[in-house]
Amino acid sequence: MTPPTWTGTTPQAERIAELESQIEKLTRINAALINRVERATDLHGNAFSLFETAIALEGRVRDRTAELESALADLAASHAALALARDEADTARQRLSDAIESINEGFAIFDAEDRLVLANQTYVSLWPEAADIIKPGVPFANIAETLAARRVPLGALAAPDAWARDRIARHHVADGGQAIALADGRWIQVNEHRTDDGGIVGVYTDITDLKTAEARDRAREQATRAAVLQATLDAMPHGVCLFDAQRKLMAWNGPLLAMLQLGNGRLAAPDRIGSHAAMLAWCRTALPAVAEQGCLDWLDGDSSDTKSATLADGRCIEVHRQPMPSGGLVLRLEDVTQARAAVAAMAQRKSDLEALVAQRTAELERARNQAIAANSSKTRFLAAASHDLLQPLNAARLFVSALAGRRMADGNRLLVGQAASALDSIESLLEALLEISRLDAGAIQPDPRPMPLADLFGALTAEFAAVAQRRGLDLTVEPSGLWVHSDPRLLRRILQNFLSNAVRYTAAGRVTMAARSTPAGIVISVTDTGPGIAPDDQALIFEEFRRLGQRGENDSVERGMGLGLAIVQRAARMLDLPIGLVSAPGEGASFSVTVPAAAPASATANGQQARTGAGVGRATVLVIDNEPAILAGMQAVLEGWGCQVLTAPDSAKALAAASRRPVDLLLADYHLADGDTGDAVVERVRHACGRAIPAAILTADRTPELKDSLSAAGLTILNKPVKPAQLRALMGRMLA
């Protein structure tokens, strides 16, 4: 081990130096005093003066001698302490040297001036080429420059000065580890750090074995990657090859060899297409059009491209060129002959399909237009049928109503009542059939809106209370403050049929209608204590003209036509409302419909209550209808109420009648002769009279369009066949 050199002072050494300086000073003082005494004796020769001087000098000498003896004693003690400290320092230095020498790694300490202070033999053995200069006190720069000059590091073989400068700079930074490759194949790991006094301590480890293992693992990993890459290339259906930045062939696959007619020449490929130029030369024979059209030319830059060429045999070769970040080039060659033929076939197929779709679209459009025309025709037919069927029925009802108001024998009155009942049955049947036809034809369009159940329940109570009372039934409609969102007319029709069936088929007991709020919506139910419905029959009762015999076997009232629940099913389907039924034989039945809930709205005037005006009997009424029977029936009914009646079949006669006397009310049929309409005649009469005479349109046409049109014109609508009670109530409201 190179003996370390220690520099610096200790407190003991400083004390010894101070004592020695004092002794030397006292010696000089003593010599000066003796010299003075001798010179004084020679000059004066005065014995007494000499005696006095000697006495004074003796005291001073004695004092100085005592001080000198004390200083010598302190010097001796300091020398002893210094000797002991030196022994302890030598012992500690030896222990430190032994400890550092026992370290397997190289160890070195440099002072603040970057001079070597201490190094173990392992450190020296790591740099045998510079062992002759690695001694305490040598600057680190000398060691680095010697190693570079003697080409010890691998990096110094080409530029020794540059390596030395970089190594010295890294040493001064002393911020951690650095691996240095040596020319003899060894690797040295350097870990250097600053000490508190500004020096540098370094640990140097031979990591050659570790680097060798890393290189071996890296080579194995690269071999594995190369095998995977080759397997991936071979799995590709198209030819692929890779050239490096020097345009040398690095990788290729089997499909490329087959396309270039190299057969199974994997080993021969580097000889025949080992460079980009060689591949171009080979392709001028194997794929002449591809080579001649520049598809295989070298491509620099970042963007890729794709080119294609058609060979003499009809094959189409597509070449994709992709530059590599390292400066190489990837070529992908693909025979796209079949793919392009398939694309052409698909394009032709697409064209054929488009033509077929256009043809089918045209056919569907024609069918749609025909359906629209048929539906429109059906709608017009329903309107005409409603008018033509209900007109005579309306006349008959008016005549029967007029007869019922006259005196007659009891037998005749019975006949009139039976005739009125028969007319009611016919009217109900026709209305049900026409309503089903309108629902099926889509002639009725729902108009959902927020509505209070209280109004609907009140109207239904008024409608069915008298019927239930005649049947001896207890009709209970539970009050409800709930609001629903639905079409008022269709929802009322659903509940009317529920109540009608319940009242008709319940021989005794009660009928209850109630509403409750559920997470699914507002459930409105009608429950009766009738005979009930068997489970097997519950789906059948919604069919047209389906009536269950057991529900009327003990019933004295005529059964219905079997159309009510069919209408319910169609209306509910149109409103997208679920219908429920809970029933069992002998336990009654409960029909329900679930309606979306709505937030309560501000109270609005939904129409005043029907009031029977006292002025009906004194009113002058002009009735306009092109049917003589209707005019005669209306005149008989109205005159029976005490009205003054004027009749007119058309616009001209209506104007003439209105000019003869003031008219209080106009009642006009909508469909008149020669395409004229009741609302137009009403407008002419009002204009001729110079005032807005109250008017109502009587019509069998129940289409929503007509209703909206007449409502927009401010005209009241009364559907045929007209019931006298409804007509009288309407007249009372209009004349009030």
Automatic annotation (TrEMBL):
Residues crossing the lipid bilayer are none
Give the InterPro entries listed for this entry. Answer: CheY-like_superfamily, HATPase_C_sf, HATPase_dom, His_kinase_dom, HisK_dim/P_dom, HisK_dim/P_sf, PAS-like_dom_sf, Sig_transdc_His_kin-like_C
Record bears the keyword Nuclease? no
Boundaries of every Response regulatory domain copy:
620-735
UniProt cross-references to Pfam families, sorted A to Z: HATPase_c, HisKA, PAS_7, Response_reg
Post-translational modification 4-aspartylphosphate, affected residues: 669
Instruction: Fetch the SMART domains from UniProt.
Output: HATPase_c, HisKA, REC
The alphabetical list of record keywords is:
Coiled coil, Kinase, Phosphoprotein, Transferase
The record's Gene Ontology cellular component field reads: plasma membrane
Q: Which reaction does it catalyse?
A: ATP + protein L-histidine = ADP + protein N-phospho-L-histidine
Segments forming a coiled coil: 16-43
GO molecular-function terms, A-Z: histidine phosphotransfer kinase activity; phosphorelay sensor kinase activity
Q: What is this protein called?
A: histidine kinase
Species the sequence originates in: Sandarakinorhabdus cyanobacteriorum
